[in-house]
Design a protein that fits this description.
This protein has 23 helices and 25 strands. Strands 1, 2, 3, 4, 5, 7, 8, 9, 10, 11, 12 and 13 form a twelve-stranded antiparallel β-sheet that branches. Strands 16, 17, 18, 19, 20 and 21 form a six-stranded mixed β-sheet that branches. A three-stranded mixed β-sheet has the order 6-14-15.
């Protein structure tokens, strides 16, 4: 009940100890990817209870992280668990009236609080201290409504600064001392008991709910994992041909501009194909969000458009029942910068324009990312190994497939795949398949076994993202075996760099824009470098279970490691780091009226373009990947497992051999770039020797290498033909000597940060 004249909102609670699903989400956003307060973001989900306590009603969030599955048979055991782990009582609502067990409470004070943590998020980003200004906050009545099974509460909160706002806030806001956002709270009737949780299988990639069940037998696992998914039912569950009673409907934000909106709908519709092919025909469809509907309404699965000040992530999330993992509402958010980043890459490769080809390139990526994020809202996790058995999943991160044809031209005719992959159909069949109760476990086992026979594997973020990742098959933005992928990306890069010039921007655009177009071309092979480097000290592995026949672990053969090292050293050669002079002359400073941005190269030679700085960024990227700390540790440990292993000492020797010797007849430019690679190698070996997190055996090898290199550097200083060479050898010899003699680690000038490689990133300013 809204009391507009007094700015009050009242809730009628049908009875004491009433329980609901409680969801908090962010209705409007701040527009800053680095801060991360986005339109449509889910903030909190819980089971809530309203308990009468004197003249107040307490809002209690129940603790479902710890439970007893034997509650019905042994309520006393359930009580021991409940009394061991506390709930959270988050509000006391004044009781205004009571009638036949129904209670009327004043929820105004409770709602006018920062439940989604806006102020703390801004503080963590070092952007100032803000608090809710009650006098400028209130109920947003258009989207505050009661429905038969859900109550939607939309609150406009104004935040006021106490102190100096941060630079991002000053740039974003008309007045950085205050801003207004809307938070949305949903109170939803608890689902009935018809949903049956499905146990997680580590070989199929689903998000899930995890909890500790203290009723498990001692031989069982205390920690339980159930997948998150939507409820899907047939009219007749026992009949596999019976129609789906409750198909999943996804609604598309009307604010997405054309032709992107049509591409989004097409990409989301791939899941209709996946469900159909998984034997669940008619289980999924796509529609436009009805006019006037609040996207936060719990009854609608939505795909929303996210505008930010800088490029950022697209996100797929959901609101789910924490007791069971049943998804209630899918919420996908698509970043509006993504298609611009894709166009930048296309323009960098082919030249700027408004052709059908660049439109097709961009829209193909839009379809893929829309399908990918909706996949998350269906419960599917990233699968970064799927690219090793074809374009098997939209839940991988695909780079555009670019090749050089027989005429020497770049070809992106197969830039992105179309439709769901074989893994996606398999995962939907396993996660959403509907089986008679007595046959479900056997059916699920059979589905997994069939997928394993076909080579379907699942490895995700924890296997791909860390610097120490070891499996070269598991990568973000890969499209072939690591060796083939790097070779292909370097060929495309060479062609694009040789043709780069004014054609890569539109007539009338500032020449300085070419920097933004050139960055993704120059660093085009960075993800291939990262994937191939995992071969060094590498180990393939799988999420194997007993009896499934999967190989749990397998170190990479030494011959394959040496081949990878040789290929990486080729990418480190000065000719591969060099930027054509025709490009350098076009790298103009950004006009003063144009804001600096994250897409640009950094420079120590401002306003001039820093060619050596760009080369050092790339060189250090390669060297650091080869001698990454855990990778070096694995080289030492794995050396005991075969007759002629690639050792850490051999790896360092190979880096030195590829970068230290001068080349007769080399141009001044290539000689300068060789000094860049030389510095990158010695800085990394020194840091490895001093790294107290590294294995002592790896540090010892690094130190042994340094003792061998110091006299070499001293001799070369004496024999150097130029001051530049003499100065570098003096510096290297001195740095090694300070470490060996005094354990004094020099403070090297770090490589400049490269522009982000992902089509999303964070603005550092």
């Amino acid at each position: 009940y809204l009391d507009a004249s007094h700015g009050k909102i009242y809730l009628e609670i049908p009875h004491d100890s009433m329980r609901v699903l409680y969801f908090v989400s962010q209705a409007t956003g701040l527009g800053s990817n680095p801060i991360g307060i986005d339109r449509g973001a889910e903030a909190q989900q819980a089971v809530a209870r309203f308990d009468r306590s004197g003249d107040h009603v307490l809002l209690v969030l129940e603790n479902w992280n710890y439970r007893s599955s034997a509650a019905a048979q042994n309520p006393d055991h359930a009580r021991t668990v409940a009394e061991s782990f506390p709930p959270s009582t988050v509000a006391a609502l004044p009781l205004l009236a009571e009638e036949n067990g129904r209670m009327l409470v004043d929820a105004t004070d409770y709602l006018l609080k920062d439940w989604s943590g806006v102020a703390s998020t801004i503080a963590r980003a070092h952007q100032g201290t803000y608090t809710v200004a009650r006098d400028r906050s209130g109920v947003y009545s258009p989207y505050t409504k009661a429905f038969p099974t859900n109550t939607e509460l939309d609150i406009s909160l104004t935040f006021a600064a106490s102190g100096q706002p941060g630079s991002i806030m000053r740039r974003l806001l008309p007045d950085p001392n205050s801003f207004t956002l809307r938070q949305h709270i949903t109170l939803l009737q608890l689902p009935d008991d018809g949903y049956k949780p499905r146990e997680m299988d580590p070989r199929v990639g689903y998000f899930g709910v995890s909890f500790k069940d203290y009723a498990q037998p001692v031989e069982g696992s205390l920690e339980q994992h159930w997948i998150e998914r939507h409820r899907l039912e047939r009219v007749n569950p026992a009949d596999p041909n019976s129609p789906i009673r409750n198909p999943l409907v996804y609604y598309i934000d009307r604010g997405i501009p054309e032709p992107i909106r049509t591409a989004v709908k097409e990409g989301v519709s791939w899941w209709a194909q996946a469900f159909d092919e998984a034997g669940l025909k008619g289980a999924f469809r796509v529609e436009d969000l009805p006019e006037g509907v609040d996207p936060m309404d719990a009854r609608y699965n939505v795909v929303q458009w996210e505008n930010r000040n800088e490029r950022g992530w697209s996100v797929g999330g959901a609101l789910a029942d924490p007791r069971t993992g049943e998804m209630i509402k899918g919420m996908a958010r698509l970043d509006s910068h993504r298609e611009r980043t894709d166009y930048n890459l296309f323009a960098g490769l082919f030249g700027a324009g408004t052709s059908a080809a660049d439109t097709a390139f961009v829209l193909a990526r839009v379809r893929q990312v829309a399908s990918h994020e909706v996949g998350h809202t269906l419960g599917l996790a990233h699968n970064y190994i799927a690219s090793t058995y074809g374009r098997a999943s939209v839940m991988d991160y695909p780079p555009p497939r670019a090749t050089v044809d027989s005429k020497g031209n770049i070809d992106v005719s197969e830039a992105y795949a179309v439709g769901p992959g074989a893994y996606d159909v398999w995962a939907i069949h396993w996660g959403y398949g509907i089986f008679p109760a007595g046959s479900e476990k056997d059916s699920l086992r059979a589905i997994v076994a069939d997928g394993l026979r076909k080579g379907y594997l699942y490895l995700s973020d924890a296997d791909a993202r860390p610097d120490y990742a070891s499996d070269p098959r598991v990568n973000l933005w890969d499209d072939a075996t690591p060796s083939v992928f790097l070779d292909r990306e370097m060929r495309v890069r060479q062609v694009a760099m040789s043709r780069f010039g004014e054609r890569n921007i539109l007539p009338g655009e500032p020449i300085a824009l070419l920097q933004e177009r050139f960055a993704p071309v120059y660093f085009m092979h960075r993800f291939a470098i990262n994937s191939l480097a995992k071969t060094i000290g590498g180990m393939e592995y799988s999420n194997a279970t007993r009896g499934d026949g999967l190989q749990a672990t397998r170190p990479i053969a030494a011959a394959q490691q040496r081949a990878a090292l040789h290929q990486l050293l080729g990418a480190l050669q000065p000719a591969e780091l060099a930027i054509p002079d025709t490009v350098i002359t076009l790298m103009a400073p950004v006009p003063g009226e144009y804001a600096n941005n994250v897409e640009l190269f950094r420079s120590r030679t401002e306003p001039a373009f820093d060619e050596l700085g760009a080369a050092r960024s790339l060189a250090q990227m390669i060297v650091d990947a080869i001698l990454q700390t855990q990778r070096a540790d694995r080289l030492v440990q794995f050396a005991t497992r075969e007759a002629h292993p690639l050792t850490l000492g051999e790896t360092i020797d190979s880096l030195v051999a590829a970068t230290w010797p001068a080349r007769s007849g080399e141009s001044a430019k290539l000689a300068a770039l060789r000094r860049v690679t030389r510095r990158a190698v010695i800085d990394r070996v020194l840091s490895l020797a001093a790294d107290t997190t590294a294995a002592p055996e790896a540090r010892a090898i690094a130190e042994l290498e340094l003792t061998r290199l110091k006299p070499v550097a001293t001799r070369r200083m004496t024999a150097a033909a130029t001051d530049a060479e003499r100065a570098q050898w003096l510096s290297i010899s001195g740095d090694i000597g300070r470490w060996l003699d005094r354990r004094e680690l020099p403070k090297p000038t770090p490589a400049l940060a490269a522009p982000p490689g992902d089509p999303f990133g964070m603005d550092p300013f």
